[in-house]
């Protein structure tokens, strides 16, 4: 009888863990898409620098590889019929790593954007370019949301490794990455407002620094146009 009760408890624990996992896995595509959008914006601030583009693309690929490995490992552990405390603890640890990766990458992207924005603002003043302000505000807002989602998910993994209760589901829902899709909509609307001025009109400038060098243009080229044609328009 005791063995039957323990078996039922293990099955219920597995089902609850799988349900929490389903809630957590929703919206991962939105998070990945937003990372790509932010990379494009950072590259726009850095004038599509080839070295920076290569580094960021490799970073995104490494992130995808790490997260794929974590998902495979976590799912393989959850496929076990009965999850004991050690296995739940391992899943919690892998879940923490899964959310630390986008948190760190988001911080790096925000730092790169702010660093370049400081250069523009130093040359033109804080109100020099509205587009720069839009990019930085979205970048900071995105990182805050990622940080909050990461905190909720880390708490959720920690709670799951100890006990499964209604609070676990609530925390998992609060940390659902699908909320980040709201930011994606806000980003597109912000860029649409900038696009009303025309492609690259009001979105680029040339300011001479103290050493005589020219600050690079911020360029969002028209679809299908070559970079050389965009330069000739200036």
From TrEMBL:
Transmembrane regions listed in the UniProt entry: 99-119, 140-158, 164-183
This protein's UniProt keywords: Membrane, Transmembrane, Transmembrane helix
Domain of life where this protein originates: Eukaryota
Protein name, per record: Uncharacterized protein
Protein's organism: Pyrrhoderma noxium
Lineage: Eukaryota, Fungi, Dikarya, Basidiomycota, Agaricomycotina
């Amino acid at each position: 009888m005791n063995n039957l009760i323990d078996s039922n408890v293990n099955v219920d624990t597995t089902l609850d863990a799988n349900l929490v996992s389903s809630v957590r896995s929703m919206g991962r595509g939105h998070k990945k898409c937003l990372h790509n959008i932010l990379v494009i914006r950072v590259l726009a601030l850095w004038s599509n620098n080839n070295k920076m583009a290569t580094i960021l693309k490799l970073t995104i690929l490494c992130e995808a590889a790490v997260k794929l490995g974590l998902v495979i490992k976590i799912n393989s552990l959850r496929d076990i019929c009965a999850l004991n405390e050690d296995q739940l603890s391992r899943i919690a640890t892998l879940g923490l790593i899964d959310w630390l990766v986008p948190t760190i990458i988001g911080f790096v992207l925000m730092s790169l954007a702010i660093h370049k924005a400081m250069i523009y603002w130093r040359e033109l003043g804080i109100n020099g370019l509205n587009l720069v302000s839009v990019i930085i505000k979205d970048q900071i807002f995105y990182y805050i949301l990622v940080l909050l989602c990461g905190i909720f998910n880390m708490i959720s993994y920690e709670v799951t490794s100890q006990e499964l209760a209604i609070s676990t589901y609530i925390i998992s829902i609060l940390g659902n990455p699908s909320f980040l899709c709201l930011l994606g909509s806000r980003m597109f609307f912000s860029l649409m407002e900038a696009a009303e001025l025309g492609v690259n009109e009001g979105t680029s400038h040339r300011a001479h620094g103290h050493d005589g060098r020219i600050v690079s243009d911020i360029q969002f080229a028209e679809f299908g146009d070559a970079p050389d044609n965009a330069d000739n328009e200036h």
